[in-house]
Every structure is written in C-alpha cells, then in structure tokens.
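ok so i was messing around last nite and threw this chain in just to see what happens. nothing serious, just curious
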Amino acid sequence: MWFFEGVSIVAQPVTHKVQITHVSKRYRKRKGFLDGLLSVDKFDHEVVSRPVANIYPKVVKFRLKISNHSKRVLRPNDAVVIFDIDGETISLSNKNYKNFLNALITPGKSKEVIISGPEIQALEKAKKGVLRFAIYELKTGNKLSNFEWYYNFKVEKKEEQSFTSRTAG
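result:
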C-alpha cells in the first residue's frame, strides 16, 4: 500500500484460473474396396476430442482500492499507467485502464477499479522475472505523486493426465 498527500492505493493481482475445454475435430477417412468388378469408395468418419487448457483472464489484471483521505476531489484522468517486464516497458492502450482514468473519488471516499496489463503470453515468453506496475503523476493535493509495485513471477508448467477420445461412425 502506498500513501501520499492523503491518498492511499492498494494493488492486488487478480487470480487467474485454468479452464479445461474439449476441442473436437471430425476426420473423413476413405476406404476403397472392390465389389465384384466395380470399385466403390466408402467413407468412414472419426471424431477426435482432446482436452485443451486455457488461462483466464488472458491478461494480467490488478484490483486497485483507492482511498481519498484528503480534502480535495481525486481526479486520476491525467495520470500515466505503466507496466514493464524486467525493465522493458509494455505498450498498452489506455482502454486497459480507462475506468481508473475516469474515476472521481470525493474526500473521505474509496473506489475499487480493475486495471488490465500485459497479456499472459508476455509473461510466458519471459518465463520468470519482475513485473512492475506504476502510476505516475497522479495529482494528490498540490503535487504530483508516483506509485509503484513490483511483483516477482515465475511461469510453471503444470501437467495433468488426460485422454483423447475417438468415435468412429
């Protein structure tokens, strides 16, 4: 938690879940055989279903609890939100944190918002490292304040036993 000029911000990562879905694909197999002197083609169908693991949500998300203990309205609309992985800044659209930029927090009130960061794939490429999340130039009182959070991460491969099913028709 950070506290500057009567403003506190708590950032908590949103938990990710793994969902197992089954993907089915239909194959058409050709069988040829002779029926007397006439060659006849016969087709068999086979459906293969296999499990696929998906991570949800597809992006890193943080839940921010912003509390305004000052005597002024907090307007984050000019603040800058930055994410980087091991010192390399990740370019993001401001739509990922628009609900934060549009928040108005009156004196003595708190507000929770969700901020979306980089895609999970960016973490998977790095395998492990430091994810930095920062809010720069947030006007608190009569000055601009910066807030930063650092998270160590490690991508782990998890295997579960599953089976591919086949049905022929």
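not much to say yet. The first helix runs from residue 98 to 101.
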